[in-house]
User: Fold D-glycerate dehydrogenase from Anaeramoeba flamelloides.
Amino acid sequence: SKAPSIIKKNLFVTRRVPTEAYTILSKYFNVDIYEEDRTISTETLLDRSKGCEAIMTLSLDVLNKETILDPRFGQIKMISNYGVGLDKLDLVTATKQNILITNTPGVLTSATADLTFSLILALSKRVVESNKLMRKHSIYDQDQFDPQLESLECQSLEKKTLGLIGFGRIGFSVAKRAVSFGMDIIYHARNERKEQAKVVNATYCKTLDQLLINSDFVSIICPGTPQTKDMIGRNEFKLMKKTACLINTARGSIVNEEELISALQSDEIRAAAIDVYTKEPFVPHALRKLQNVILTPHIGSATRQARNDMGILAAQNLIDFFIKRKCPKHAVN
Ligand code: DGY
Assistant:
C-alpha cells in the first residue's frame, strides 16, 4: 500500500537488517544503514546519529550515559532495539532524556529455547567431544565400547533435574521442551509463576542456593541487569553438584567468567555450554582452551524466521510511534 505523504524522518540503523524490515522502514524513513558486518564503534554510532530522530540498535551496541548525553545524540527521540536484551543501554538516562525505548520480545522465544535445549542435549550426550574424537582416529571402539565408560560417559535426561534461573517466556519454553524428555523442573525467579509452573509441573525455589544444590542442569535464562550481574560465581559453583552442567544462553554478565573458568578447570562442575560472554564479541583464551565447555557465538536468535520477525517488529515499533502516533506495544519506558 502507498505510504501517506509525510516528511520522512532520519533513521540510523546500526547493522544491516533483513530486507523485509528494510523495505518497510524505507517507506516511512530516510534510512541510513551501517554497512559493515561487525558491531559499530561508539564514535561512528554518534557521528551517524547526528541529525536523526530515531536509531535502530542491536542488543550488543553500548548506549551508556555518556553516549546518550553526547550532543550528536541530541535529536534522538526513540531507540528501537532489534532484539530483546537491553542490558547495554542506560534506560534511566534515556528516560530522563525523554527517549522512548522499544524491543522485540516474543519472536525469538522458540529459537532461543531451541538453542538452550540443544546445548542441554549436546552436554548430556557429549556430542561435541564425540565429534572431535571421531576426527582424531580412524578406529574408535576403545572409547565407544568401554564397559567402564572411562571416557565419554553420557547421561540420560530422563528423571534429571533441570534448574531454570529465570522463568519468563524463554525459560517457560525451555521447560516445555524438558517435559517431553521426562525431566524434573525447578525454577528460581524473583516471583513465583504459579500458572506457568502448573503447565510444566515445575517447582519454585525461593532461593538460588536451593536450585543450585538440586540441579543436574542449570540453565540461565534471565535478563542481564545490575541485580543479576555475577549472580553465578565461586560460591555458587561450590553449591552445584560435581556432575552438574551449566548452560548460559542469557547474558555473559550473569556468570563471573573467571570463576567459571576456574570451576571448569578444577572439575568443580562437569561441563558448561556458553552462548554469551562478558565482553562480547571477545572470548577469553582460557575458556577456549577448556575441553569441558561448548562455546557458541551468541546464536540464540539466529534463525531466518526469528531475525526477520525481529526486524519487522522493530520497524513496527518505529512506525507506531512516528507515523501512527501511538505508544508502541513493546515500549519499555
Ligand atoms: C537479544 O535479543 O537480546 C539477543 O540476545 C540478541 O539476538
In short: The chain has two domains: 9-107+304-322, 109-295. The chain has 14 helices and twelve strands. The mean pLDDT is 95.
